[in-house]
């Protein structure tokens, strides 16, 4: 059965994200005392007892002018309400019912989506007065709850049971109507249910996945400095205004995951908050956003670094690029706002010069010029993403590696060690892919200079097509079988 889609709404700072994390069973949404932290819709699978839920965290409901950021946030919340099976409207029971609560309760009474009123922050009897006051909102009996402490979840379960039963009745009626040949109601490109669960969980399998597995979602993170067009890119790729955008810098605060299919291949897109220089990050909320972005990079397979064409490859761009490479992720550079670039030739020269001088450790790093706003060159960007993902997954047989190693050492033998004896490279194998990682067994690894290691890494790139992806090479000491004899 399809899980019950539950949208969690309310004015700012009533505990929506705390309840979202509680029902999801893990800390997904950023929680902070500052009002208005959540801006985009965030989805997650959750459970309440034996009830499967599809959770939607939303921005706080606020009245604002038509062109304000808060108004665009409210439009995202209204979409979540329209698509949900049931809405949980949260109020802060300790504060009591505010005029804003009453205003949006009126809006919800006119909505066709059923509503469950939740009086949050009722722990220890502190919200008893607000709980009784909330009966006057005309949304039925409120559910007393403490999302932070997990109190009242059994009452919430009972309140959701009738809505789950109604959903199952609708599904049964739709099943009797019949879908041709058992087709999925979501369409031909719908993901298998286990794939969606694996994507939302963000966990990697213990076994190494096959490089050409077309059913496994590709984890793609979009990162960069603030206001470089990351959310605009995601919206243009999926063909929907799914993410909040605007001229203001720093609109995105949470890392938002969007499941998408590109040419039949499932992709797990992750939009992230902009990364400023470390010295400028002083606000505690921004520190949480940065931590969320760094976690998205660690869980990604390919990372697209968005850069402004008129401020390309500055110090912060290079810092982010090095961070991605050090994490061992495949990296693609996207030079955005190309349609409005002031001097395209100078921008291309700067990118090439910076790649040669400052990112020489990933020789051959690709870059693509795009316009996220106008949708230009996005197919080429995605082709490059899949190409880099394929390189990142390559495995080389041990036989090929050792024949290659013999040729490399024959052409340029290792130098002499500290004791006047030549270092011998005896054996080589690939320890793992994702990123390509190799182990070389030699007589005295501590004496082998870094310049020779770079020679081997560059040779690996040239011989096996590892241009642009991180390559790790570890030296291991060979065991002498006669040492104990």
TrEMBL record:
Which N-terminal residues, if any, form the signal peptide? none
Q: Which residues bind GTP 1?
A: 10-17, 57-61, 120-123
Q: This protein's superkingdom?
A: Bacteria
Here the segments flagged for biased composition (Acidic residues) are 203-212
**Sorted alphabetically, which Pfam families does this protein's record hold?**
KH_dom-like, MMR_HSR1
Q: What does this protein do?
A: GTPase that plays an essential role in the late steps of ribosome biogenesis.
Q: Which family does it belong to?
A: Belongs to the TRAFAC class TrmE-Era-EngA-EngB-Septin-like GTPase superfamily. EngA (Der) GTPase family.
Q: How does it assemble?
A: Associates with the 50S ribosomal subunit.
Q: What is this protein called?
A: GTPase Der
């Amino acid at each position: 059965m399809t899980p019950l889609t539950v949208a969690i709404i309310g004015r700012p700072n009533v505990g929506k994200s705390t309840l979202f994390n509680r029902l999801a069973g893990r800390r997904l949404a950023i929680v902070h005392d500052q009002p208005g932290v959540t801006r985009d819709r965030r989805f997650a699978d959750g459970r309440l007892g034996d009830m499967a839920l599809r959770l939607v965290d939303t921005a706080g409901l606020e009245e604002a002018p038509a062109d304000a950021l808060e108004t665009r946030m409210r439009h995202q919340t209204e979409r979540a309400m329209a698509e949900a099976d049931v809405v949980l409207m949260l109020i802060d029971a300790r504060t009591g019912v505010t005029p804003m609560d009453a205003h949006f309760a009126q809006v919800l009474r006119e909505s066709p989506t059923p509503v469950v009123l939740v009086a949050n922050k009722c722990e220890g009897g502190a919200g008893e007065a607000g709980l009784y006051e909330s009966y006057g909102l005309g949304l039925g009996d409120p559910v007393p709850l403490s999302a932070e402490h997990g109190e009242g979840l059994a009452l919430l379960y009972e309140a959701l049971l009738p809505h789950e039963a109604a959903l199952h009745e609708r599904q049964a009626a739709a099943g009797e109507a019949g879908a041709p040949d058992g087709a999925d109601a979501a369409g031909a490109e719908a993901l298998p249910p286990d794939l969606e669960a694996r994507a939302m969980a963000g966990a990697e399998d213990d076994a190494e996945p096959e490089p050409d597995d077309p059913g496994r979602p590709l984890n793609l993170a979009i990162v960069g400095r603030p206001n470089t067009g990351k959310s605009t890119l995601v919206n243009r790729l999926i063909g929907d205004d799914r993410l909040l955008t605007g001229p203001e810098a720093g609109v995105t605060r949470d890392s938002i995951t969007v499941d998408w299919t590109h040419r039949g291949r499932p992709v797990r897109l992750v939009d992230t908050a902009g990364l400023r220089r470390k010295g400028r990050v002083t606000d505690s909320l921004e520190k949480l956003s940065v931590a969320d972005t760094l976690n998205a990079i660690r869980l990604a397979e390919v990372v697209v670094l968005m850069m402004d064409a008129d401020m390309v490859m500055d110090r912060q761009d290079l810092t982010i690029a090095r961070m991605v490479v050090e994490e061992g992720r495949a990296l693609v550079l996207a030079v955005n706002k190309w349609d409005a670039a002031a001097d395209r030739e100078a921008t291309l020269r700067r990118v090439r010069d910076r790649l040669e001088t400052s990112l020489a450790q990933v020789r051959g790093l690709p870059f693509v010029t795009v316009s996220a706003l106008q949708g230009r060159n996005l197919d080429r960007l995605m082709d490059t993403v899949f190409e880099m993902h394929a390189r990142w997954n390559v495995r080389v047989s041990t036989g090929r590696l050792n024949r290659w190693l013999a040729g490399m050492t024959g052409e340029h033998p290792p130098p002499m060690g500290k004791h006047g004896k030549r270092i011998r490279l005896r054996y080589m194998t690939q320890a793992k892919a994702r990123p390509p990682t190799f182990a070389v067994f030699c007589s005295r690894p501590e004496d082998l200079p870094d310049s020779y290691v770079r020679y081997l890494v560059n040779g690996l790139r040239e011989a096996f097509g590892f241009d642009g992806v991180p390559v790790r090479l570890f030296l291991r000491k060979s065991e002498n079988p006669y040492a104990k004899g």
